[in-house]
C-alpha cells in the first residue's frame, strides 16, 4: 500500500507540526484516512475482522503518538474499531439467523464511497441494531434503539431455485467484500456525524437559552458560535460576555463573529470573570475533550470560570460533539492533559533576557515561564453536557461512552491503570465492578503489569487474635543494591487460628490459611468451614485451572483414630465462585498422605506424598479432571528413615519444572 503509507506519513507530519487545529477537523481527517486504509487493505479469507482491526490499530498508534494531546484522534480510531467489531457481529448474527448474503461487487481499487455495491437481504445496520439490543448492556440510548419495520426480509422476484443457488455459490471472498463494504459504509456515517455535530447541538439551543438572559463564554469555539447564533435565529434576545482568553486572545475572534451575526457582545478581561459572574445566568463553553469520568479539558482559564460559577450557583454548561467523548480517565498514564506553548506569547525575548543571572556565569534563568494550553475541569463543577444526542449529566457520561466504544477497548484501557485507580472505578457502577472483578480482566492485567517481585510483610498479632499482612511490589531487585524500590499495594487483617500458615501465590491471587486475597486490591474471600468431626486437617493446596478458568483448593483430612493408615484420608475440593459455596468430597484412586507444600504449574498441583504401600512419590493432581496421578518416585533408599524429614521439604518452580529442595535436591521432568 505505497499510496496509503505516504498518505499516513503526510498526515502524521501534519499532526506532529500542529498544522491541523480543531478537534472536528482533526477527527474528520483521521476518519477519512482510516477509510482509505480499510478500502485498500487486503483482507484474508479467515479472520477478516482481525486483519482490519490490526491495520487500523497500527495506523492509529502512529497518529496518537504524533499528537498525544489531541485526544479526538484516539477517539475516532476506537470508534472505527467499534464499527468493525459491530459489523462483524452483524454478519455473524445474520449467518446464525440463516439469512442469505448477496454477492457484492468489489475491486482492489474500490473507492471510498462504495457506490454501486449490492446490499444483503437484511442490512448490516438492522442486524447491528438487533445485536446491540441483545448483547450490549441496557441503557437509555439502547432502549430507544429499536429495529425498524423494514427489518423484515423483502420478497425477491427470483425463483426459489435461483435463490438457493445464489446462497450456495456465495464463497468466502464475497463475505469478505461484504464486511469491507459494511465497515466503509459505517465509517461514512461516522464522517457525516462528525461533520454535522455543530448543527445537531445548535438545534437544542432554544431549549436552554431563554429571553433576556446573560451568557458568559470563554475562548473561541465554533460549537459555541453556532449554538448562540441558533438561539438568536429563534428570536431569543440575550447578551453575551466573552472572556478574552489571554495570552492567545481567542475570545476576540469569537466576539467579532458574534457581532457580525448581530448578537449583543461584550469582551471582558479574564481577571473580571469572577466580578461579572454574579450577573450571569449561564456559562457556556466548548470542550477540547470530555473524559470518561465527566471531567472536561478546555481552553486555559476555563477552570477559573467553573470555580466562579460554582461559587455563585451559576449553571456551567459544556458543549461537545460525540467525537470529543474520550473513554480515558484523567489519571491514565498515557493521557497527556496539557501542552506547554512558547513563553514568547507571555513575554518578549528581550524581557526574558533581563531575567537571566549572568553574574553567576552560568546564565541560569531567574524566572520560569509556564504557558499551558488547556485547563482541566473536574466533573463536580459541570452542571450539564450538551452533545449531538441531547443533554446529559456528568454522572451519565461513562454510560454514554460505553455505547460509543467497544468493551474490548474499554477493558484494554482499564488494564493499564494502577491498582488504586481500579479500586476507585469499582465504585463508579456495577458494570465497572463486574469487569474489574472478572477473572479474565485479572489475567489480562497480570500480563500487562507483571509483578516480578511480591513482598509480604507479616505484622504482629493484636490482642483480638488477628494478624495483619501488608503487600508490596517491586519491578526490579538487585542483590548488590543497598535499597529496594517498592510500592505499597494493600493490607489485609484476618483471624489467626494456627501458628504457621503456608502462603501460595497462584495467577494473581494469594492463599494464606483460610483466606484467599487479591494483593492488588486487598479484597479477601474466606474459605467455608469443613464439618469434619473426628478428623485432623493436614494441608490445603491452592491452584488455578487454565482450562476452565477456575481457582480451586484441595483439602486433605485424616482420621484421628486411625491416622496410621492412609486409606482413611479424605479429599475435598472447593471451587472459587461456584454455588453453593461448600466443599465437595472427591474420590481418590491412589490413597496417600501428603508430606510437603504444593506447587501449581499449568493446571496441575504437585506435592510429595506416601501411598498406602509405603512408596514415597511426587503426586500430581489434575485441577480440571480432579484426578490423582503418581508423577515420579522419590528416594528409593532410606524412605522410612527420611519420612519425617519430608514435612520440611519445599517444592519450587525451576524453569517450569518441579524441583525439590532438601538433603538431596532433585528436578522432576
TrEMBL record:
Protein localization: Cytoplasm, Cytosol
DNA-binding as UniProt keyword: no
Gene Ontology MF terms in the entry: guanyl-nucleotide exchange factor activity; translation initiation factor activity
Residues annotated as domain F-box: 405-445
Record region (Disordered): 146-173
Keywords in alphabetical order: Cytoplasm, Initiation factor, Protein biosynthesis
SUPFAM superfamilies, alphabetized: F-box domain (SSF81383), NagB/RpiA/CoA transferase-like (SSF100950)
Pfam family of the protein (one): IF-2B
Domain of life: Eukaryota
Signal sequence, start to end: none
Alphabetized InterPro entries for the sequence: eIF2B_beta_subunit, F-box-assoc_dom_typ3, F-box-assoc_interact_dom, F-box-like_dom_sf, F-box_dom, IF-2B-related, IF_2B-like_C, NagB/RpiA_transferase-like
Coiled coil as UniProt keyword: no
Spans traversing the lipid bilayer: none
GO cellular component, one term: cytosol
Family membership noted in the UniProt record: Belongs to the eIF-2B alpha/beta/delta subunits family.
Assembly mode: Component of the translation initiation factor 2B (eIF2B) complex which is a heterodecamer of two sets of five different subunits: alpha, beta, gamma, delta and epsilon. Subunits alpha, beta and delta comprise a regulatory subcomplex and subunits epsilon and gamma comprise a catalytic subcomplex. Within the complex, the hexameric regulatory complex resides at the center, with the two heterodimeric catalytic subcomplexes bound on opposite sides.
Protein name: Translation initiation factor eIF2B subunit beta
Organism (species): Brassica oleracea
